[in-house]
Amino acid sequence: MAALILFGGGGDLAMRMLLPSLYFLEHDGLLPEGLKIIGAARSEESADDYIAKVHEAVKARAEADQAWDETSWSRMKARLDYLAVDATSPDSLKPLKDKVGDGEVTSFLAVSPSLYARIVTAMKAAGLADKNCRIVLEKPVGRDLKSFLEIDDAVAHAFSEDQVFRIDHYLGKETVQNLIALRFGNTIFEPLWNNLSIDHVQITIGETVGVGDRWPYYDEYGALRDMLQNHMLQLLCLVAMEPPSDLDPDSVRNEKVKVLRSLRPVTVDEAERVTVRGQYVAGVSEGKPAKGYDEERGAESDTETFVAVRADIDNWRWAGVPFFMRTGKRLPEKRTEIVIQFKPLPHSIFDRDDRGEVQANRMVIELQPEEDISLTVMNKRPGLDRRMQLQPIKMSLSWGVPNSGDGKSAAPPRRRIAYERLLLDAMAGDSTLFVRRDEAEQAWKWVDEVSEAWAESGLKPDEYVAGTWGPDSADMLMMRTGRDWNTTDV
Ligand code: BG6
């Protein structure tokens, strides 16, 4: 029998993401035959009560996606079980071990990372870290390089690296994988994918939500550690890495880690020029009044809810091509995109009279709210005007838009939760879309340098009004280099 244990099985991540993901996999017939799903948490409740809660959470989510059906649920229900445990105690874990027996066991730690070290030690003692076992660690693993290494050493003591799956759920997003397909499944982009043709890259992860009740966690981490250390640097790696020789986990991750090693450190002198910290004050978000971060937190705080950074990758391919990254809470839109901005024409034969400005080509890889990859190219405006007029046209390069070559519009498949792919991969032992120890280490190293530079230079967050695109200093970061953040569609 194979088993998936969800530590923290009654918590927010499990109820909002993991169990709905498992339901969708069940619905599509993708869960391994005979798999048992066992919730494990502190709360003393019966399996029936737990299953009733799972039912409520999963049904609400599946109905919203029009994917609820009782047959799939009864199949999933038959797999579900619950055990109240103190996961830091080997004795308490013994009944869990007895339940799962000697089959393949994947344990997902959806609990506070401050417990990881104690839990993995107890798991080892209870026989839940044997050769047939795997562990999935939700981010953030650590708060800096030092704490990451402390936790990871405890993990390495119990599990070998090929048993460890460090999740970055951005890697499970469909468009992120499509980026790999686009870059390495086509020949036409590779000759352009370098400093000869690309002017700069922008990565934006905008969120409309505020920090709200999450502040006890968030206040310790801030946008730098919550988003940039992981999701944004992972996206940067996928854009910037060299073609791997294979799609196996190590070939891909070897290339990603080289990118992280090539990131230019942010020094104290440079901090103000290449980074921006922001914190939202009261404003209007999605048409409703929104509190400032300090008010939510109930006290003044120096934690940034917005960060923008100019990163430089010191290698042959990317010399002179800045990567601008920005992310924040309480921005005007939930929008995640990577913009590959190509260089302008070396010489334009069109920019005369009123022929329209020639815009440089731009590829936008949109992860949210839509999933799409588009390329903006200049076209002739149709008509008989003797002076040729140009206009930008946005072409979709992905399945998201009815433009699939044969002229027929195929309905895009349901948008999957990123965890669906990652849960399947972890259970199958495929770590390509997970973060290797040295990757996480390098990412922390670079992020530590940024936060040390902030501490030494005394850089405090600039205010921005909730519902706006961050502080003015974030626009200045771009404008100083003669560039702008991407805001318009075409
Ligand atoms: C999480 C962060 O990792 O990612 C959250 O901790 C953030 O602060 C979330 O809101 C964003 O994920 P997504 O998939 O909604 O963009």
TrEMBL record:
Glucose-6-phosphate dehydrogenase NAD-binding domain ranges (all copies): 5-178
Cellular component GO terms, alphabetical: cytosol
Reaction catalyzed: D-glucose 6-phosphate + NADP(+) = 6-phospho-D-glucono-1,5-lactone + NADPH + H(+)
GO molecular function: glucose-6-phosphate dehydrogenase activity; NADP binding
Keywords, sorted A to Z: Carbohydrate metabolism, Glucose metabolism, NADP, Oxidoreductase
Enzyme class, broadest EC rank: oxidoreductase
Active site (record annotation): 231 (proton acceptor)
GO biological process, one term: pentose-phosphate shunt, oxidative branch
Residues that coordinate or bind NADP(+): 42, 139
Stretches of the chain forming a coiled coil according to its record: none
Catalytic activity, EC: 1.1.1.49
Protein name: Glucose-6-phosphate 1-dehydrogenase
Organism from which the protein derives: Brevundimonas intermedia
